[in-house]
Amino acid sequence: MKCLASLLASAVISLPLLSAASAAAPEAATALFEAKTVTQRNAALAKLEAAATGDPASAYAAGAGEFFTALESLASGLHRHGFESPQSFMLPLMRLPVPDNPNPEPLTYEEFRAILVAFRDRLEKSAATLGSVPAGADIGMVVDLTHAGIDLNEDGTIAPDESFAAIMATLSHGSIDTSDTAPSLTFRFDRADGHWLQGYAEFLMAQADFWLAHDFRSTFDGSFHMLFPRAKLPLQDILVPPPSEMGSNIFSSEWRIADFISMVHLINWPVVEPERRKAARRELLEMIRLSREDWKAMRAETDNDREWLPGPQQKGVNPLTGLEVSEEQVQAWLATLTMAEDLLEGRVLLPHFRITGKGINMKRFFDEPKPFDLVLSITGPGIAPYLESGKILASEDFDQIQREFGGGGFLTFALWFN
Fold this sequence. Notes:
Number of helices: 16
Low-confidence stretches: 1-23
């Protein structure tokens, strides 16, 4: 349960869902999350969206529905073109367990950008809907994660192997037990969890906007056949081997390793939509604000009813993560948020391992965008325009925070905490 991959899966895919046991929930919300077809689900979502203005519970369920249909739109776009997951933590958004497509459609650079735009815009709608729910609204939506999901293969149905529990089990290589004897994966999502989900929408929007701010055509043309080996990309006929030699993991064959190296080398992207790079910083700042609101609401709770993310006063091990939250960890997380906000606002500079006396102004990195070269950013030349003198983040500050999470456990908690 403590597997990092499991937490990454839950961070990207888990969201508030409603069961029939929640008597106060709108009827359309029950239909939304129990639907077995996309048509039924979309009809229920439309009813919730129509009622959202005057009903906080409908708005909450609609925002959640819009979030997971954003994920579904991404999965559908990937499936349509024969996406094969690299199964690498280095490409988190590309880890969705999209089923094989024996007859993929050709994919162009423009079509891939359109997939990202649709994904990003749907997330924006979700964030706005969730943000319309009053902070003090009495929300209590209960779900068993084995009973709802998304359509991964575009067949119009939501099958058992497309449930959220099944998707997370696949991503975590089976470390999440979904058998009949497994601990219940039933959670009661409240208003605080709405802040959590809205924050993740902002986080994913920032990722999409950063990509879309740049022209990454050279990366697409030169390496994306690694992800879409049968979608008629420019180098498919030259560099994609026979199916028997492909391997399933990004590091399981020489050709995949070679293409991954090509991908890294080709991340030298001109800026084509600078406002999107600026937007990415604003979205990350909004994620930080929502995380603070989330913890403020959680620490004010007096119940302890199947908590998705418990406050320190809500004792008990979380059945999905196997973790329990302490007051010291909450304080350390709030300090992490302040540290991240200071970096994004340029009040504190990000250190570089080979440069002394100056640091990177991350506010200027986003707001004064220049071509992004990954390798040169790591080695130094690419970040030279953003170097300044001032207060530089000290490694000791972060080390102190990490100690509250058990050192290497910080990333696991961060994926869960948002």
